[in-house]
Amino acid sequence: MAIMTQNSVDLLAPSNVANPYPAVAELRETDPVHWHEQWGGWILTRYDDVVAALRNVDGLKSERMRNYAASRESLGREVSSGVVTREILSRWLSFSDPPVHTRLRLLVNKAFTPKTIAALDHRIAQICASLLDDLADREQFDLIADYTYLLPVTVIAEMLGVPASDEKLFKQWSQDIMLVIFMALGASDRHERAEAGLSEMASYLRDIIEMRRKEPRDDLITYLVRAEEEGDRLTIDEVVATCTVLLFGGHETTTNLIANGVFALLDNPDQLSLLTADPGLMPRAVEEMLRYDGPVRGFLRWADEPINIRDKVVAPGDRVLVLVDGANRDPAVFEQPDRLDITRFPNRHVEFGHGIHHCLGAPLARLETPIAIRLLFDRFPKLHRAEQGAGDWHETLLSRSMKSFPVRV
Amino acid sequence: MTAVYDGDDAGSVLEVDAELCVGSTLCTQLAPGVFALGEDGRATTVGDPRKWPDLVQEAEDNCPTAAIRYRPQSR
């Protein structure tokens, strides 16, 4: 049930955290270009507007730190993010605009293409099997802490060239960083925690960067270090920032894609049966998981010029929440959008975004997810939820992620 | 599918699958003589790939959704 107060939806009301889709549907139907007074920005929920916004690279910018500070000041509100946070996040691919973004994206892109990633399939299956072996004696476990977190973080750690055994460190830092990235508006200490998390992660990576200068290896950090040494391709700060975005982005979202996907399948046993009976449906099933309850709810943009969207005018400096979980359930595009249909085709969801910032890790996520889910249900065909209810969701604006997901075998 | 330059003597085929294309602009950056973004925000072919075969190969290798299919010789 949406809670509307003075024309503003309470985006983080418990009911909207448990299930955001009804409130999103109400916005999409009644006010598709919605000015949210309390949050201080526009919210787009229709598919056409979402795609147009993501394509509008000239009018809507991704550079988040300078724009965030400017928009806070123009609204007369405090600028709360720390120095390290601004230094690092301002160099993230996802928060950069051309030409900086173009240069960074071209540099790292080939490491993540479908062709390159395909070579990881055996290793991914090996990691899954090993994680499932560790759960052999358990009657109950946390699908996230014990499986869907450990798989992607191990994969990205190996790609980057950081010890996967440090995964507990990465987890702590990611939990802190995500409070700012995914906008946990209710966490009053989120800026301090993100500052600490990013500082420690950066310091850790700087140590490894120095080690790779002396002793290069066949990993992504070495590749980036070499590019920096070649001069003019990227700065050392960009190496550090790029490593942090790959480390954070390389697992946080995939963890939740797999977990949310399993949650949706367990909630829709007819669909799970379909998938079990016909494993060939898995690619379509994964696309449907991305659409139906994907890990990313939306993206932030800042208007660089006046933009007409329907009957509204977005002013320069305004921030815009491009809500993909509104677009992904737009009845103008998807039949029975609130239904999980693993056979759905075509499925032009925008969960990975669209345009120049289309998710770098999409091919990797599309490889890890089918393997992780197939092997999980092969090993535990009777897997079911340990608790009933709507699920234990983080209170964030931009992500759809559970704190824990207890399951029984 | 968008097909171009197929069936000629050299037998070169270049296709961009409009269903898969997400307008990442990686191809238009790497091979601007060959690819451009159409009105619908998706890549389309605007030039002869035989002039820049290495760049077209780079574009195919870099496409995040494997939407480009390039065969310098179809047989």
What descriptors fit this protein?
heterodimer, A: 409 residues, alpha+beta, 19 helices, B: 75 residues, 20% helix
Mean pLDDT of chain A: 91
Calculate Rg of chain B over CA atoms: 11 Å
Largest sheet of chain A: 5 strands, mixed
Count of DSSP H/I helices of chain A? 19
**SS class of chain B:** alpha+beta
What low-confidence regions of chain B span 5 or more consecutive residues with pLDDT below 50? none
**Strand percentage of chain A:** 5-15%
How far from one another are the termini of chain B? 20 Å
User: How much helicity do the residues of chain B have?
Assistant: 10-25%
Walk across the major sheet of chain A and give the strand order.
3-4-10-7-5
> Main interface pair?
A-B, 23 and 15 residues
Radius of gyration of chain A: 21 Å
Overall 3D form of chain A: globular
Gross morphology of chain B is globular
What's the overall average pLDDT of chain B, rounded? 86
SSE order of chain B, one letter for each helix or strand: EEHEEHE
